[in-house]
Design a protein that fits this description.
The complex is a heterodimer of chains A (222) and B (186). Chain A has 222 residues and is an all-alpha fold. Chain A has 9 helices and no strands. Chain A has helices at residues 2-13, 33-49, 69-88, 102-123, 136-162, 167-172, 176-187, 191-196, 206-215. Chain B is 77% helix and 0% strand.
Chain lengths: 222, 186
């Protein structure tokens, strides 16, 4: 046991108390493990080398098959085959009539239509800028909206404030004849008599005057 | 670890394996010769027997597939230990990725595996030592196990782990001190 002594001597030289410790492992391998290990390993290697020897751990599948499935399967498949044959044997012709010469002229018509749509696309070709800046279109829209607002406000200011005439001007533009006709027509007053009449000579009862004044909003006590 | 006679035996095994007629017989002998050593080397890393069995089978399948190309630039057992070490580390990495644990949490995972082992007894010094070892980082754990349990020479360990002899000696020294500190702290 030179080596064991060597190990112990080394530990002693380190002043280690491990020199006096048992080097026995506290746990063990299962009984018979090493005697069986070689055979088990050989079996594993054989399977790796020859996959066809892979053990078959039972071939039964755990799935459920409906009763009578396989008995009816043949008839079902045959009927499906017959049906598909019947479909494939159906006449190819259609019940619709196609105008004479339709297919002969169709390619030319399609080409013309395609060319026409190409021209339309070309005239309205969209210009895509090489560089797109983020938010540029937003700024444009905002600027346009502000301009419209300014134009609208300016128009409003010019039309309604500058061109709007004063009340005095509007009143001065009304002629005496218009006023005369208005009073005569609306209130049935004899305007000429009123204009020419002397108020001091009017034969009007004071009570009538008071009543008139009350009706028009004057208080008797005032 | 292999004596000169043992190395001769390994050389004969490899030559026999390369001969198709004697391949299976040579392989059986090889498995029989190294199964326990490799088993414990792996199990000290992963703790569980079932995981050890899976990894060990993978190791020998790789040996079966690659031994014909083995050029004997190193000892056969060094080559076998290297495959076993890499398979164990690969398995541990896969477990880490699956459970999304960090390295420090991973050490606690192995501590849990230990306590879950049948017949675990925290009063037994052997169990305590295993708990201490599983607090070490993976590479340091490997160094400790290979030296303390497998009594592997540093020169052979360098071939297994791809690290210099000096670094391995230093790593083992630090691992011993950490294990002592853990045991003193319990």
């Amino acid at each position: 046991m030179n080596k064991e002594n060597g190990i112990s001597q080394e530990l002693i030289s380190m002043d280690s108390f491990l020199a006096g410790y048992s080097r026995k492992m506290p746990y063990s391998a299962p009984a018979g493990y090493f005697s069986n290990f070689g055979a088990e390993l050989t079996g594993t290697i054989e399977i790796l080398d020859k996959p066809e020897l892979m053990p078959l751990w039972g071939r039964a599948l755990p799935y459920f098959v409906p009763g009578g499935y396989f008995e009816a399967l043949t008839d079902h498949i045959v009927s499906m085959a017959v049906t598909s044959d019947a479909i494939s044997n159906m006449p190819v012709g259609s019940s619709y009539n196609v105008p004479a010469g339709y297919f002969e002229t169709l390619p030319g018509q399609m080409l013309l239509a395609a060319k026409a749509s190409d021209v339309e696309v070309k005239t309205h070709a969209k210009l895509i800028p090489l560089r797109r800046r983020k938010g540029r279109s937003t700024i444009r829209w905002a600027a346009a909206a502000v301009m419209l607002m300014c134009i609208g406000l300016g128009s409003f200011e010019a039309f309604y404030s500058g061109a709007q005439p004063s009340h005095e001007k509007m009143l001065s533009s009304v002629t005496s004849g218009d006023i005369h006709d208005y009073l005569q027509h609306t209130y049935r007053l004899d305007v000429d008599q009123i204009v020419s009449a002397d108020i001091n000579n009017l034969q009007v009862d004071s009570k009538d005057i008071i009543q008139y004044l009350n009706e028009t909003g004057w208080d008797q006590t005032e | 670890m292999p004596d000169p006679s043992d190395q001769l035996d390994d050389h004969i095994l490899v030559a026999s394996f390369k001969n198709e007629q004697t391949r299976e017989e040579a392989f059986t002998k090889l498995v029989h010769k190294y199964q326990e050593r490799l088993y414990w080397h792996i199990r000290r890393m992963v703790v569980e027997h079932e995981d050890t069995n899976d990894i060990l089978q993978n190791v020998f399948i790789k040996v079966w597939k690659n031994l014909a190309e083995f050029r004997e630039e190193s000892n056969l057992y060094t080559w076998l230990y290297r495959i076993g070490t890499n398979e164990a580390l690969t398995w541990i990495e896969q477990q880490k990725r699956r459970s999304s644990v960090s390295i420090s949490e991973n050490e606690d995972v192995f501590a849990e595996r230990l306590t879950a082992q049948k017949d675990f007894d925290p009063n037994m010094v052997e169990w305590k030592l295993q708990q201490a070892i599983h607090t070490l980082p993976e590479k340091q754990k490997l160094v400790f196990n290979l030296r303390y349990y497998d009594e592997m020479p540093y020169e052979d360990m360098a071939g297994v782990l791809g690290t210099s002899v000096g670094a391995l000696k230093a790593s083992y020294h630090h691992a011993v001190k950490k294990v002592e500190a853990f045991l003193k702290g319990i």
